[in-house]
Amino acid sequence: MKINTRIVLCSATLAALLLPATAQINQRKDNQQDRIANGVADGQLTAGETANLEKKESNLNKEEKLMRSEDNGKLTGADRKVLNQQQNQLSKQIYNQKHDAQTQNTSPKSEVGKRAENQQDRIAQGIKSGQLTAGEASNLERKEAGINREVRNDRAANGGKLTPAERRQVNRQQNHVSNQIYNKKHNGRRQ
Asked: What total of structural domains would you count in the chain?
């Protein structure tokens, strides 16, 4: 009887010790995603910066999944230490990107700029709510950054303006990304 009681107590103690570590890792991921979403929403992060950060977050999630698969769904102490160090590094990168001189235009005057801002807001909301995984957000942000680069290059080539044909092209691209944002936010995958 005493042995069974000890086993039960040891098992309960072990479970209590392991649960907070997993909960801590998940809380950390949620906090980092909120910080990224807030940076997107308030213009502190550009689409390119966000794509880079989300790609790193996605890779970190994949690494955690691999670590768990190697140890029957659990993380070893060494695994948790490695993940914590990588989360610390990512946290510093989020801070640095949010506080550098690059900003997203948060009060655009053109229709193209307003549309880009709206798409950024939708992505930020999806990140914050967990409707977009880090990989999905990275993919969408990379596409937004590409559109932004194209608009910047077209304007530079045309004295600061877009031709009607360029506006139509950008509008088609934004329609395509808009549909992807909707589909990825409603595909049932959660962060």
From this structure: 1
Q: Is the pLDDT of residue 126 over 80?
A: yes
The answer to whether 126 touches 184, Cβ cutoff 8 Å, is yes
Three-class SS state of 188: coil
C-alpha pair distances (Å), 130 with each of 51, 63, 148, 182, 191: 16, 19, 25, 14, 5
The answer to whether residue 184 scores a pLDDT higher than 90 is: yes
Cβ–Cβ < 8 Å for 45, 98: yes
Q: What is the DSSP letter of 106?
A: S
> Which residue type, as a one-letter code, is found at position 92?
K
Please check whether residue 4 lies inside any domain of the structure. no
pTM of the model: 0.72
Q: Are 25 and 80 in contact (CB under 8 A)?
A: yes
Tell me if 60 is assigned to some domain: yes
Return the minimum-mean-pLDDT range out of 26-30, 85-89, 102-106. Answer: 102-106
CA atoms within 13 A on the CB side of 171: 9
Contact assessment for residue 64 and residue 75, using Cβ atoms and an 8 Å cutoff? yes
pLDDT band at residue 106, thresholds of 50, 70 and 90?
low
